[in-house]
Amino acid sequence: MPTKSEAIAAHQRGDLNEAEQLYRDLLHSAPADAELHYYLGLLCRQTGRAAESAQWLQKSIALAPASLPALQMLARVCDEMGDTAGALHALEQYLTLRPDDAGMLNVKGQLLVRLGRLSDAEQAFRLAAERNGAATMFHDLGFCRQLLGNPSGAAAAYQEALRRGHDHPRTKLWLAQCLRAAGRTKEYYDIATDAARSTPDDIELLIESQSACRYVCDWDGFDRNQQRLLTRLQRIMGSNGGEDVPPGILNYLEVDERTISDMAKRYAGQLSVAGKMLRQNLRAPATPRSGKMIRLGYLSTDFFTHAVGSLVRDLFACHDRARFEVHGYSLRHQPDETQIRIQQGFDVYHILAGKAAHDIAQTILDDQIDILIDLAGYTSAAQPSVLAARPAPVQISWLGYLGTSGGNFIDYIIADNIVLSPEIARNYTERVIRLPCYLVTSPLPSSEHRPSREEAGLGSAGFVFCSFNQPYKLDRQTFTAWMDILRHVPGSRLWMYVPDTAVCGGNLRREAARLGVEADRIVFAGREPMANHVARMSLADLSLDPFHISGGATSVAALAAGVPLLTLRGESYLARMGSSINSSLGMDDLDCTEPDQYVAKAVELATTSGRLDAIRKELAKALQNSRFFDTRSFVSSLEEALQSAWNHHEAGLPAVDISVSASSPRP
Question: What is the reported pTM?
Answer without folding.
Answer: 0.90
